[in-house]
Write a structure and sequence with these properties.
With 263 residues, this protein is an all-beta fold. It is built from no helices and 19 strands. The strands form five sheets. The chain has a five-stranded mixed beta sheet with strand order 6-9-4-3-11, with no helix packed on it. The chain is rod-shaped and about 135 Å long.
Amino acid sequence: TGPGVYAVSYTATVNEQASGSVANLVVGSGGDNPVCTVNCGVEIPVADPVVTYAKSADAAQVQVGDVIGYTLTATVADAPTNNVLTLTDTLGAGLDFTAVTDAGVFVCTPGNPLVCTLPAGTPVGVYSLSYTATVNAAATGSVANAVIGTGDDDPSCSGTCDTDTPVIAPDVSYAKTADTAGPVRVGDTVAFTLTTTIANSLITSDVVLLTDTLGTGLDFAAVTSPGLYSVDASGDPVVRFTLPAGTGPGVYAVSYTATVNEQ
């Protein structure tokens, strides 16, 4: 080959292992003892990683006892992580941590808060983990939680990083029974039981007030089993039984007796 300048071009793709910078070096060899003149080694900086995170829930509304599935997602772009990413997820009132169902490549410490880490050197990609929480008897209005990402790669929230799931309003029903179908005689004692059933969630701003009016021929005698109720018998023949605000889902009973009088 005669005197002149000869060039060759090629391409290379930056792969997922790139970090800090990518470099390569050309070495010439041959009997004519080729020498490097300038720029025979190239080093190109790699962009810093862009780390974002988000969160989602699988339920639109819940009631006490329901299990909600949550998914945390971390996205690594431009370059592998230089540092550990820590996701800290704190459950709000009305939620109990249940279990990590799929940690993916994260390492998690179960509990409230749930703390999960993504190691330094994690390649570009999208990484998810899933866990569940149970709606407990303290849930009212809505149940909420939030995830916060920390680390020297300056992670930021992308999209939704907290959830607020409505709790179905309480459903309250009541019933009454007597311990006898009769007939009864003057002087007999009849036992009555009032039952309140609360479903979905606890009662909040209002109490449950059951007003029981004894008919002609009955005298209020005594409360035999108040349960959680407070009792006001001062208005005999009207007796008031009250369940307080904050009473959770369940079945609540109060029993009392009345005496058959001469009327």
